Amino acid sequence: MKRLISFSFIIFMLSMSIVQSQTVYDESKVPNFKVPDALLTFKGKKINSVKKWEKVRRPELLHYFKNKVYGRIPKTLEIDSYTVLEEDSNALNGKAKRKQIALSFKHNNKSLSFTILLYLPKEEQNPPLFLGYNFYGNHTITNDEAVLISTAWTRNNESFGIKNNSLDEASRGKRTHRWAIEKILKAGYGLATIYYGEVDPDTNDFSDGIHSLLYNKNQTQPKPDEWGSIAAWSWGMSRALDYFEKDKDVNANKVIAFGHSRLGKTSLWAGATDQRFAGVISNNSGCGGAALSKRKFGETIEKINHSFPHWFCDNFKQFNNNEEALVVDQHQLLSLIAPRPLYVASAEEDQWADPKGEFLSAYYASPVWDLYNKQGIEHMQMPKVNEPIHSTVSYHIRSGKHDVTDYDWENYIKWADTFVK
Ligand code: GCU
Fold first, then answer.
1. Residues 236-249: pLDDT tens digits?
2. Where is the signal peptide, in residue numbers (predicted)?
């Protein structure tokens, strides 16, 4: 009997853990939870002015996200040197000026460099630009044969012809559909991109990438409150901005941080930590990006920390299956971007990223834009598919899957024309 009870108890416990880790795609299963108020301090004080927001609330939220979610950067590290590897004022059939610039960093007898691919519209002086990472190397975003191929570690991808974790000609142009270069240039914007693996390879290994340059003696991995990979990639975006401040061909005051998916989480964190970014775009960023964690819809904190243990700081693991303990939610990450323009975009078939949670996050962040008399998302009702809301805080849900499409770029350009340019 005893044996029978303990056996059924084990089966019960096992089924519970399976139930717990099942992915919720049903709105009726979203738990009730209190959305933390962006304008109420941790001590319960109401924030009703820009001054109080900037002096009290913004810093405490930023501090919390640094220590508990993305991880703080242990030291400052500036560009040691940069080299223009290549430039051509007649690129893309005469439509663009192209530059490829390597930024180098040195510390602890170690060095790291990453390369920015920059296209600028030929007719414009000091144009604004979109800056965003790519997943498989700068040469994948275009068929332009002059784009240099990265030698950094890359995830294999059969359909892109990527083998042995290294890149070659086979993958050139494989991701052109995600980068509407012609549209961007025609609208008078520049485009800058970096292969994210050059800043930190996307593996659960902290011996490589930028982290190791900033270790203390005998340190082999970040401390529980120190930077994971998302914070490392965001750091790289800020260093690219440092470079733009030195490059007279670009307008460093008008750089928009763009990113898709894990790199959308990255652009949001870059915009939150570096107020020099003039605007931020989150394309399908989902869990740990724009989506509210407490909804536990689609990907959850537990799932993301399980599959990608290196993306956030170790402290974030305290919230695995324990969202209640989080005193913030992702709308407060978005609020750190105020009063600058922010665009959150979802895709209908991208339920893993919780489109409704991304929308609500933009909605709940909006009172902070109101403080600055800027227009956020005013209604809690989600717009219909392919009916964008354009204001300082913009949102759309387009038809289709997890991706970046021309439709997304057309909307980003329209929004940038009005709110950033
Ligand atoms: C996975 C991950 C997401 C992430 C996505 C991506 O699906 O679970 O959190 O956004 O990869 O970066 O493509």
1. 999 999 999 999 99
2. 1-21
